[in-house]
Amino acid sequence: MIRTDDRVAVVTGASSGIGLATAKALGRAGYRVFGTSRKAVGEADGIEMLVCDVTDDASVEKMVDEVLRKAGRIDLLVNNAGIGLLGGGEESSAAQAQALFDVNVFGVLRVTNAVLPIMRRQRTGRIVNISSILGLIPSPYNALYASTKHAVEGYSESLDHELRTFGIRVVLVEPGLTRTSFEENTTRPDRPLPIYDQIRAQMEEQMRSGVLAGDAPEVVAEAVVKAAAEAQPKRRYTAGKLAGQVRFMRRFLPESTVDRTLRKFSKLPA
Fold first, then answer.
1. Is 15 one of the catalytic residues?
2. Where is the Ketoreductase domain (predicted)?
């Protein structure tokens, strides 16, 4: 049996925000933690940082090889690296949409595929994919970002069924609005249309105010630690009050009620 202090965790996108909070929380829980970032950053709070660009196969393979060289195993993978895109669905080119999916969806796929042979040899492992409440509901002016999170949800649920016989589980953590620099790093459309300028600006302001009033990243980190530790994990772990409310609304309220509530929240005409 693997002792708590022998377990090894990899957290992508761990230089700030949810990733950093998660890496610290896992360290406190007894894991040896390797965090990744696109650019080299120094080790902090016991987190061993490695460079990894999740859009590059060679970079991912090099990172995983380095973890194996240093630690010999990987027990937990937290796929956290991601970017945002705020704007009307028709305001982004196909190339911009592909770039978003390359990070948020195929980045998860690349790192997961690199780690799975190790976990299968170990006959044990846990993969926690950071989704979003936008993986459960539509979101005006987040059509492409919400699409990536819906994709991660479907991928994760399906993969979990495939891997259980190998002692590996795949679970989702769904944050709501979180106080991070995510909004500052959110991409804007590469072909903006004047007809959307006013409502897009309104949605940007709503995002800023929502993030300021959102959950601390430590709330999400706590959900990740729980998802990693439970012997019989749930399929999904919501993180924060808003995320719980959205999940309840999506599961139990009529579609027409969800539609009206969403438009009211987004300050769109009924």
1. yes
2. 7-198
Q: Among 24, 92, 139, 149, which one carries the catalytic annotation?
A: 149
Please report which helix (H) or strand (E) contains residue 172, including its range. strand 168-175
Out of 31, 37, 141, 145, the active site residue is 145
> What is d(CA 222, CA 173) in angstroms, rounded to the nearest whole number?
10
The interaxial angle of helices 106-122 and 143-163, nearest 10 deg, is 20
Task: Kindly give the parts of the chain with pLDDT less than 50.
Answer: 1-4
Q: Which amino acid is at 101?
A: F
Class of CATH domain 4-240: alpha beta
Q: What is the pLDDT of residue 183?
A: 58
How many Cα neighbours within 13 Å face the side chain of 219? 17
Compute, in degrees rounded to 10, the torsion defined by CA atoms 103, 240, 124, 24.
80
**Is 0.90 topped by the overall pTM?**
yes
Does the annotation mark 237 as catalytic?
no
**What backbone torsions phi and psi does residue 239 show, to the nearest 5 degrees?**
-125, 105
Residue 78: which H helix or E strand, with range? strand 76-79
